[in-house]
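Researcher: I'd like a structural prediction for the single chain below. Treat it as a standalone chain; there are no partners to consider.
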Amino acid sequence: MHDVKEIEGNTHEFKLVSLIYGIDTVKIEKWLVSPGDEVAKDQPLVEVLTDLIGLAFGPTHIVVTLPAPRAGKILLTRGQEGETVSLPSVLVAYAVDHGEPAAIDDRSTADPIAEMVRSLAELTRRRDEAAVADRKNEHIIGVCLSDHDQKRDELLRRFGRAALEPLLGLLTEEPLGHVRFEAATLIRELRSHAAIPELVRALADTRDDVRATARDTLGGFDPRHVRAALLRALADGSAAVRCAAVAALARLGDAAIVHEIERRLDDEDAAVRHAAALALVEFHPEHAGAALSRLQRDPDEAHRSDAVALVARIAAGPDAPERLAPWAGDPSPAVRGQVYAALAGHLQSKRGEALLAPLLRHTDAGIRLEAATTLASIGSPLASRTLVELSRDPSPGVRRQALSALSWLLHPVHAAHLASALRDPDPGVRITAASALARLRDPKVAAHLASAVRDPDVRVRVAAVDGLADLMLSRRTPLLPTLAAALGDELSWEQQGRVTPLRSMSCHVLDAIGRVLAAAAGDGAAGSTSPRSDETRALLRGALVRALTQTPSDPVEAAAGVARLLADPALAPALALALSRNAPFPGRSQPLRAALDAIGDAAVAPLADALAGADPEARQAAAEALERYAAVEAVDALLAALDDAAPAVRASAAAALAAHGGGRAVEPLIRALGDPEYAVCCNAALALGKLGDGRAVRPLVNLVEGLLQRRVERLEDPDYNKLMSGVRALAYLRDPSTLELIARSLTHADFRVRRDGARALGYFGGPVAREMLRFALQDPSPEVRRFARDALASMSA
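Model: Treating it as a single chain, here is the predicted structure.
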C-alpha cells in the first residue's frame, strides 16, 4: 500500500507504507525513472525486493514493480539502488498534471497505528498456523516471533500513550477477532486507566482470548475504578455487556454491590436475568434465595439446566440434597435427569425418603418414575408400590424402567409381578422382566425363566438363558436339563432357518452351559451344576451331538468346548465327524481335537463302534480319529476297515495304520496295494514305508516297476499318484537294493516322476545317490534341477 500526499500546490509525495503484512523493509533493486522524467499514470517507477513468508516454502524473496498513481513530472527520487529502506518511507516526489485531480489512491490507509496492529495480528496468525501445521515449521515460528516483538516495540516506542485511542477503536469496532486480540494485548502494555470502560465492554467479546486478556488487564487496575466502570456497564444498551458486567462484579466479592446484581434480576433481557441469578448463587449464596426461585421458574430449559449444573457443582456436604431436591420436579426430563444423577451421590436411605417421597404422588408419571427409581437405587421400600403401578403404564419405556428398578429392591415378593411381565406385548419389556427375574437370585423364578427360553424374540431368550445360568452358579439350582432342552429347541429352529444375523442362539446356550460346567469343574465337586443323573447326561449328549453334526456348523466350536468339559466317551463319534468336516478350519478343528484328547482312550470303543456303523461318512471320520490311539482295539478296528465297502473308509483306515499299526498291519496293507481304488493303494504304500518293515520292499518294488514300464508321454493321475507313493515309500525304507529302481525314475518322460525321484534319492545318502542326483542336475526341467539341488543340500547337512 502507498499514500499520495500533497505537499504544496501541485507537488505530491509517493509514500510506500506496506506491501505485505509482517514485512517492514524493502530493498530498492532498480529505478525505472529519473528526476525530470514525465510519467503517465500506472507507468512503472521502481522495482523493489521484499520477503514473502509462506508456511509451506519458508521465506521467499520476490521483486515488486511499483506503478505511478497518476501522470506527472518526477521532481526527485529517494534511495539508491541496492539500499534497504524502512517502511513507511517516501520514495518519489513529483508534480501532478493540472488537468488531473490529485485524488488519493483507493488502496491508501489513513492510520499507521491500525496498519501496524494488523501487521502484528497477521504475524501472530501465521505463527499459530505454523505451530499447528502437520509439519511444524520452527523457522517460520521463530521469524514471526522475532518480527512481532520488533514491530510491537517499535509501535510502543514511536507512539506511546498516543496509540491508546486508535487501539481502543480497534478493540471495539474491528470485525477481525485476531486484530481485536492484538489490540487488547497492546492496551495491556500501556496500562492506562482511560481504557477501563472499553475493556469492560470487551468482557462481552465473542472471542475467548479477547475476553481473557480484558479480564487480566482489568485485574491490574485499582478495584475502585474497575468497580465504578462495571456499575456503569450495568446500564449499557448491550445485553451482552450487561451480562459480562454482572459476572465480573460478582467475582469481586464485594457485598456492598450485591443489591446492584439483584436489581438485574428484573432486567428486560432474559440472558441478563439468568446471569444475575447464577452470579448470586455461585458467589453470594447468602443472597441467593430469590435467585434460585427465579431460576426454577425460568421458561428456558437450557437456563434451568445451567442452574442445576451450577448448584450440583457448588453444593457440598450435608446440605447438598436439600439444595437439589426442589429441582426434582422440573417439567423437563433432561433437567430432572441431572438432578437425580447429582442426588444419587448424596442420598442416604432415610433422608432420601423424606426428600423424594412427596414426588411419588406427583401428577406427572415421568417425575414419579424418576423419584421411585432413585429411591429404589438406595433400597427404599417406599418405591415398591409406585413402581408396580408404573409397570402397567401404557408406555413401554415407562414399563421397562419400572420393572428394572423393581429388581434393584431384590425382594422375592416382586417375582410374580415380574413373571406376569413376561407376557407383555413389547419385547423390550419382556427382556427387562427376564433380566430382572434373574437378578432376584430366587430358585422359585426358574420355572418363569424356563418358559421365557421359548419366547419368539431371540433377545428375550438370551436374557432367560443368561438368567438360568446365573441362577445355577449362584444358588446351585439343578437347571441343566432346562438348558439342554433349550439347546435342542434352538438347534431345531436353526435347522429351519431361524438364525440370528450375528451369532446363532444355540451358541449362546452352549456358552451358558459351558460356564456352568466350568464352574463345577473349578469347584472340584459334582454339585447341582454338574450333570449327575443319566437322564440329564443323555439329554445334554443328544443336544451336543446335534450341535456337532448338524448344518449350518455355527455352534460347532461352542459345542466342542462343552464336550471337552463333559468328557463323555459317547460324544467321540460326533466329535470325529465334526473334526473331519472342519479340518480345514483351525478355529473349529483345534477345539474338536482338544475335546477328543479330554476323553482319552475311552473314545476308542465308541469310535470302533462307529467304524462298524451304517453311515459311510461317520465310518470315515471314525477311521481318521482312530489314528490318534495306539490301543489294540483301535488297530483291530482299522484293520477290519481295510475291507470296508466304501473306498473313502478303506483309504482313511490305510492312512491311519501308519501311526500305530505295527507288524500286524504289514500283510493287510500289502494286500491293499492291489485295491482298485488308487487312494487306498497310495495310502497303503505310504503306510508301509512309514512302518519300516522289510517285508514291504518287494511288493513296493513290484508296484513301482509295473508303473515305470508304462512308457507313455503323460501318465493318468491315478497311476501317477500310485507311482509317486511307491517311490516315496521305498525312500522311507532306505533299502540299498532299490536305488537302481529309483534311479530309473530320473529318465522317465514325465518331469513330475523325475522330480519326485530326485526327492526320494535325498533320503538315502551315500556316494551312489549323490552321483544319481548330479545326473539330475543336468535335467532340462528347472523343477527337477531344483529338487536335485535341495536333495544334495540335505545330504550335505
